[in-house]
Design goal:
The chain has 357 residues and is of the alpha+beta class. It is built from eleven helices and 13 strands. The protein folds into two domains: 19-54, no CATH class; 68-354, Glutamine Phosphoribosylpyrophosphate, subunit 1, domain 1, CATH 3.60.20.
């Protein structure tokens, strides 16, 4: 450890010194015949930096894509139908995402999303949602009550505030200011289920593998641009204030226009633990196909269970992923995860492959 007397003086490497140093290196590079790209690497200037300096556009050119939508669970089929006309008419993936997810949020028979979602253990229906576009714009609402379309509020957070996430009463207040109507989200069927649950009030935060949950939708439009969104009421009878992965950018959703779009469903705590959707995108960035990348993320979740000595028998996790080439990946921890695919030729629900029997 350095003592007071022998602490080395901090090298003050000012901008001027840095420039001088780079100039000297430049001369040296010319002397020894290093190519300019080599020098760019030494100086820290990437080709992109140099292009920017020259005023060149650095964004790589994209091929026109064939529109597609992939959505979690069986309810994805109807949501895809609601989203498809926008893509078919040459619209943006972001708009399609919002329209598709709204369809599911507005359906009172879908009891894990939006209006009609199951309450927490105190009887509050608290909703989580997030959205991300091809440029990295993001918006999210967490634990928001009384508003039926959290996906649209998340989009408003993204487009109309300097922030990316609003929570609880603040989110509801913002939504009302934006003209969203306040409604009672607790439909009679959900209320009845909750009252039944209250008789024992066993707090077992287990996601039944038959009873999932988040709508996660990822899409590519005709320009080849990717976007995604997700929306959920989270785990039924959760603790008041509990937030899962779904509204957390990187966990429940991630989009990188050059690499792919990913969303997750299942027990959010486990997805957050491995920053699941970002992880899948990063696997793709390093060469994995969407399928391989989903598999690697699910295995990483399994490994965390093993490491912590925990049982996964009542847990379900699923990921879906697309890349700009139109490849699709889907993988789950256990059997039972389905997803809906919509393209110009296909409208169907598929069963995801899985890790554990
Ligand atoms: N991921 C959601 C949550 O943990 C629930 C689900 O998709 O099953 O809130």
């Amino acid at each position: 450890m350095a003592t007071k007397n022998n602490t080395p003086k901090k090298q003050h490497f000012s901008m001027n010194n840095r420039r001088k140093f780079i100039k000297q290196l430049s001369g040296l590079a010319a002397l020894v015949g290093l190519p300019s790209a080599g020098f760019a690497a030494i100086s820290g200037l990437t080709q992109g930096d140099k292009d920017k300096k020259k005023g060149n556009k650095t964004a790589p050119k994209r091929k026109l894509g064939a529109p597609m939508i992939v959505t979690t669970w069986n309810f994805g089929l109807q949501a895809n139908e609601a989203a498809w006309p926008t893509l078919q008419q040459g619209g943006k993936a972001l708009d399609a995402i919002e329209q598709g997810i709204r369809q599911c949020e507005n359906d009172p028979t879908e009891r894990s999303v939006g209006y009609g979602g199951r309450p927490d253990r105190d009887g509050h229906v608290t909703l989580d949602a997030c959205i991300m576009d091809e440029k990295g714009n993001i918006g999210s609402v967490v634990c928001m009550e009384h508003i039926a379309n959290p996906i649209s509020v998340a989009r408003a957070v993204m487009e109309k505030t300097p922030h990316v996430m609003l929570a609880g009463e603040g989110a509801t207040q913002f939504a009302v200011e934006q003209g969203f109507e306040k409604v009672n989200l607790l439909v009679p069927d959900s209320e009845r289920e909750w009252k039944e649950w209250l008789k024992k009030a066993e707090y077992t935060p287990v996601i039944n593998i038959e009873n999932h949950d988040t709508i996660g939708m990822i899409a590519m439009d005709g320009k080849g641009d990717l976007s995604g969104g997700c929306s959920t009421s989270g785990m039924a009878f959760k603790m008041h204030g509990r937030i899962g992965d779904s509204p957390i950018i990187g966990a429940g959703l991630y989009v990188d226009n050059e690499v792919g779009a990913v969303t997750a469903t299942g027990q959010g705590e486990e997805v957050i633990r491995v920053v699941g959707s970002f992880r899948v995108v990063e696997e793709m960035r390093h060469g994995a196909s969407p399928q391989e990348a989903c598999e690697q993320a699910v295995k990483a979740i399994r490994d965390k269970f093993v490491l912590r000595g925990k049982d996964w028998s009542n847990t379900q996790i699923g990921f879906i992923a697309i890349n700009p080439q139109g490849d699709i990946g889907a993988y789950a921890l256990r059997p039972g995860f389905t997803y809906a695919v919509k393209t110009g030729d296909v409208a169907e629900v598929r069963k995801a492959s899985y890790l554990l029997d």
